[in-house]
Design brief:
By secondary structure, this protein is α+β, with helices and mostly antiparallel strands. Helices cover 54% and strands 13% of the residues. Helix 2 crosses helix 4 and helix 5 packs antiparallel against helix 6.
């Protein structure tokens, strides 16, 4: 007899939990558009700040890379010398030294995202959304002797920089 009563007591919270979960979801549902609008507003404001603080001074490129043996030497000898001299460079291996609220770090975190973010190049142009060039997969292939993807992406990057007038034609 006791076991039936115990089973009823245990079943009661699970019966009540379903409506509570549904009620919680219904209460949180209106927050989703608010969160999306806040994120969009943050992205627009950050883009405007980049345009005003960087693009007006000729700073249009942000490069993020690390001290990985797979790409560090290549980036430092082949990529950086070809980028505009005003390029802002962040080294992922030194991220503990970064100021979390600095413009380069905020721009990297927003426009770089959380996938294949190292190494990457972000190109900023006034009144245009950013363009991100992700080098992680091409360098993964390069590590295995396949250079074509790296060469193609690098070519696309410099064509874009030349086409937009950020870097002179090579």
């Amino acid at each position: 007899m006791e076991s039936r009563e115990f089973t009823k007591c245990r079943a009661l919270p699970s019966i009540l939990s379903a409506p509570l979960i549904v009620a919680g979801i219904l209460l949180l549902l209106p927050l989703i558009p608010l969160l999306l609008a806040t994120y969009l507003l943050y992205a627009i404001v950050l883009q405007l700040v980049v345009w005003l603080c960087w693009c007006t001074r000729g700073i249009n490129v942000l490069l993020v890379y690390s001290d990985s043996p797979y790409w560090q030497e290549y980036i430092e000898t082949q990529l950086i010398p070809k980028l505009p001299p005003t390029t802002v460079v962040l080294n992922w291996s030194e991220r503990r030294k970064w100021k979390s609220l600095s413009l380069p770090v905020l721009a990297f975190r927003l426009f770089g995202g959380s996938r294949e973010f190292n190494p990457l190049v972000i190109v900023f142009r006034p009144f245009r959304w950013t363009r991100t060039f992700r080098f992680w997969k091409p360098f993964r292939d390069y590590k295995h002797g396949k250079t074509i993807n790296l060469e193609e992406l690098e070519s696309k990057l410099f064509q874009h920089l030349t086409h937009t007038g950020i870097a002179p034609a090579r």
